[in-house]
Write a structure and sequence with these properties.
The protein is an alpha/beta fold and 326 residues long. The chain contains nine helices and 13 strands. The protein is globular. The structure holds zinc ion. Zinc ion binds next to loops.
Length: 326
């Protein structure tokens, strides 16, 4: 049997799933914490894979990982959310360990592709997908093609520069939209404001979470409300820029922070309207939540691995990452 192992590496969890041919329902599944700021992420990944590895019959592994990465070499360049992986040869290492072909692509690109093929973006030719969680990732479908770029590094939408004097971003630069609107950025802002003397029902500290802040906002905590208003404001500026570049017919939002709903999206939409340079971009623009949830990355990693194993895949995914279509 020709089994496929698909992996989705996130800032908070690593997920591994095993698929039979022609099926998108996994026969085995493992989820483990990535503990991305602590050493040993690679060992935890290998353990997670081994825990579901079938006795025989695996033909390929496909991985969705946060970028920037080099899909040609299978190397993670320097992903802000997993600090110990710098120029890390992920696919060569795994391929040696497990003895099968391994391929890799950017998790947000792959989730965007999955939303386009199977999810909220079906039927659209120009789509911007944004996932807001530990970081902010993006995937763009332009004129019916995944935008990959010369180096496979296109659509790093979270690292769009909003304010060069802004807060530090996970990547080491300042003022990227991720540094204003990701989960950790919202938490950091609230912590800083409390420490500066702002009144709040929340307690400052390292364990404060976006979910707690959202709960406090719903109960009327003005600092918590303003934290999401601020995130939405900057997100609106970034997305106004994406509209000017990509002119999409649909914006799809994934990731845990997107689940807060109006707390973020009301100020976001106000800001988007204010900062979009021409109102025509907003005509018939759909703004919607991702339909596939956490499974998007896995679904696409599975499609990618099938391709590496020479199996049939959905028509939109005809080429391996970094390779031009014939
Ligand atoms: Zn950045």
């Amino acid at each position: 049997m020709s089994l496929i192992v698909a992996i989705d590496i996130g800032g908070t969890h690593i997920r591994v799933a095993v698929y039979e041919p022609d099926s998108i329902v996994p026969i085995a599944h493992e989820r483990t914490r990535s503990l991305a700021n602590q050493p040993g992420v690679y060992d935890r990944l290998v353990q997670a894979i081994e825990s579901v590895w079938p006795k025989e019959g695996v033909s390929a592994i496909g991985i969705a990982s946060p970028g920037p990465l080099d899909p040609h070499k299978g190397e993670i360049l320097a992903t802000p959310n997993i600090p110990e992986w710098k120029n890390f040869p992920l696919t060569p290492k795994l391929s040696r360990h497990f003895g099968v072909p391994v391929c890799l692509d950017n998790d947000a690109n792959m989730a965007g592709l999955a939303e386009w093929q199977y999810g909220a973006g079906k039927g659209h030719n120009d789509l911007v997908y944004l996932t807001i969680s530990t970081g902010i990732g993006g995937g763009v479908i332009s004129n019916g093609h995944l935008l990959q770029g010369f180096r496979g590094m296109a659509a790093e939408l979270g690292h769009m520069l909003i304010d060069p004097n802004g807060p530090p971003c996970g990547c080491g630069h300042r003022g990227h939209v991720e540094s204003f609107a990701s989960g950790p950025s919202i938490v950091r802002y609230v912590n800083e404001q409390i420490q500066a003397g702002e009144k709040s029902s929340l307690l400052a500290g390292p364990n404060l979470s976006p979910v707690q802040i959202a709960d406090a906002a719903r109960e009327g905590d003005s600092l918590a409300i303003s934290a999401f208003e601020r995130a939405g404001f900057y997100l609106g500026i970034a997305v106004a820029n994406y509209l000017a570049i990509f002119d999409p017919s649909i914006l799809i939002f994934g990731g845990g922070v997107s689940q807060v709903g109006d707390l973020l999206f009301k100020p976001f939409e106000d800001s988007l309207r204010k900062h979009t340079f021409h109102p025509h971009y907003l005509d018939d623009l759909m703004i919607t939540k991702a339909a596939l949830g956490d499974d998007a990355g896995l679904l696409e990693a599975q499609a990618l691995a099938r391709l590496a194993a020479g199996q049939e895949v959905a028509p939109q995914r005809r080429h391996l990452p970094g390779k031009k279509e014939e």
